[in-house]
Design a protein that fits this description.
Length: about 190
């Protein structure tokens, strides 16, 4: 009698982000820490500041093919300037740092969305931003937004890569799976 051998294929979580320059991340971490001290939002004090582009779950067996397709987008993309400017709010539950010119990010997001269309339940961020605090209660939002809608913030950096992060099934921490440099190459499919 022949025995059937099956292999385990874990379902991992992935995030595609743009990581600002270290000096800008430090400024944002200070803002997040101060916000948490003043308004006790549901944020991690000094937590990571990044621009989230997409999030998805996929089986590990598909990881290399998916990574290669996303990397092709980066290879064909040109580095671009991102200007973070002032604060915005989303659904009276989140306060964030806005991005002044969204066109380069929207073009990138559209390509990522097309690439991830085969991945069930892939989530593409339609409003790229850097979150300061989210999941705020009504009283937290009202009190903090009175201050932050008048505050100013400005920082500029060159986005020259995307990071693909991975969280393995059963783990809580994220690791960098791949740095995908924008190289402005002609890519043929």
């Amino acid at each position: 009698m022949q025995e059937l051998i099956t292999t385990y294929n874990p379902l991992n979580d992935y995030r595609l982000i743009i990581d600002p320059a270290q000096a800008i991340k430090k400024k944002i971490a200070e803002i997040k820490t101060l916000f948490d001290e003043q308004y006790k939002g549901l944020v991690i004090a000094g937590g990571q500041a990044f621009i989230y582009l997409a999030e998805f779950s996929d089986y590990e067996v598909n990881e290399q093919a998916t990574t290669d397709r996303i990397d092709r987008i980066a290879l064909g993309s040109m580095p671009f300037k991102l200007h973070l400017k002032n604060f915005g709010e989303l659904e009276q539950r989140e306060i964030y740092i806005g991005i002044e010119n969204l066109i380069p990010l929207q073009l990138l997001s559209d390509q990522v969305a097309a690439t991830l269309s085969r991945v069930p339940e892939a989530r593409i961020n339609k409003i790229p931003r850097v979150t300061v605090a989210k999941g705020l209660q009504v009283f937290q939002f009202k009190k903090s937004w009175e201050e932050y809608e008048k505050k100013s913030f400005s920082a500029t950096f060159i986005a020259n890569e995307m990071l693909l992060l991975k969280r393995m099934e059963g783990f809580s921490s994220w690791q960098i799976l791949k740095r995908m440099r924008f190289q402005n190459l002609v890519i043929t499919y």
